[in-house]
Amino acid sequence: MKLYILLIMFCSNLFCSENTAKALSELNYNQRYILVKTFYDSKEFVKTKNERLLLTAIAWKESNFGEKLESKTNDFGVFQINLKSFNSRFGEQLKSNNLDKYAKNMLRNNHKVGMMAAVAELNFWKQKYPKDLDKVIASYNDGSDITQVGKDYATDIKERIAVLDSYLKTISSNNLKTTQKI
User: Fold this and answer.
1) DSSP conformation class of 102
2) pTM of structure
3) What is the pLDDT of residues 124-169, one digit of tens each?
4) What is the rounded radius of gyration, in angstroms, for the C-alpha atoms of the chain?
5) Residue 81 per-residue DSSP state
6) Which one-letter DSSP state was computed for residue 44?
7) What are residue 82's DSSP bridge partners?
8) What is the largest CA-CA distance in the chain?
9) Among 145, 148, 147, CA closest to 128
10) Is-contact 107 117, C-beta < 8 A?
11) 20-23: which pairs have CB atoms within 8 A and are 24 or more residues apart?
12) Cα angle value 35/62/6 (rounded, 5°)
């Protein structure tokens, strides 16, 4: 029985990975541009390749590389930053510069602002869970009350990281053309 369950889990993971990889092959030019831009521009904010892959996977999961920039739950931009979390991390800086009324637009339209907010959010959870990346990723989605949805989110993000790592080796940012300016 255990072998049967393990076999089903392996096959379903293999099927998911194939579907995930197939989704990357179907990206339009703008989505590929966001993918590459996220991966390479994140060098400014994080140190390791794995952290850059994590940010890129989040951009993919949250907005399908910029295709969905606003959610019903008050999340905005490529990284779907929750406005309440954003204001708790950056609210004082925004208010002191009289920019708080522009927060939604900044998250929707400024890739670097969204990336900085995503990094700040991940760093917040890394401080809380310094040795548990799964909880850090789950908390990016769930906040402090991690549910099965958050655990599934973390599993999905880690799968996307593996697929992205492989995909990024096969493409060149020089071959990407886009009409979208970020």
Assistant:
1) G
2) 0.81
3) 999 999 999 999 999 999 999 999 999 999 999 999 999 999 888 8
4) 17
5) E
6) G
7) 75
8) 62
9) 145
10) yes
11) 20/159, 20/160, 20/163, 21/163, 21/166, 21/167
12) 95
